[in-house]
Design a protein that fits this description.
Number of helices: 4
CATH class: Mainly Alpha
Number of strands: 3
Oligomer: single chain
Radius of gyration: 19 Å
Structural class: mainly alpha
C-alpha cells in the first residue's frame, strides 16, 4: 500500500491516535492535515496524514504548543521540505554538469 494513499475514515483515525473526530476536523480547518475527500465527501486519511497527526499531538504534549504554534511549525516544516527537494534537484544538475551529461534547454 502506498504511503500517501487515502484509506482511513475519520472514525478509524480518531481511534488510532486517541482523539475525538472533532479534533481532526479542527486540524483540517487549521489546514494542519487536509485529508482526501471521496466523491461522496467522506474524509479519507493516508498513513502520512496519520503520522502528521501523531506529530501534532507530540508537539502539544512535549512542547506545550497550541494550534497556532503547531500551524507555524507545520508551515516551516513544509518550507524546509520544499527547500530540501530543490537542493536535491540542484545537486543532481551540478553532478550532470560536472559529468558533461547536462542538456541545456533550448529557448
Amino acid at each position: 500500500m502506498e504511503f500517501n494513499q487515502p484509506v482511513f475514515a475519520i472514525g478509524i483515525v480518531a481511534h488510532m491516535v486517541g482523539v475525538h473526530q472533532q479534533t481532526l476536523r479542527n486540524y483540517e480547518r487549521w489546514e494542519l492535515v487536509v485529508p482526501h475527500r471521496s466523491e461522496g465527501g467522506t474524509r479519507l486519511y493516508s498513513n502520512r496524514d496519520v503520522e502528521i497527526i501523531r506529530q501534532i499531538l507530540k508537539w502539544k504534549e512535549e512542547l506545550g504548543l497550541n494550534l497556532a504554534g503547531i500551524e507555524v511549525m507545520t508551515k516551516l516544516l513544509r518550507k524546509i521540505n520544499l527547500l530540501e527537494e530543490k537542493l536535491d534537484n540542484l545537486t543532481l544538475e551540478i553532478i550532470k554538469l560536472r559529468d558533461g551529461n547536462y542538456k541545456f534547454p533550448i529557448e
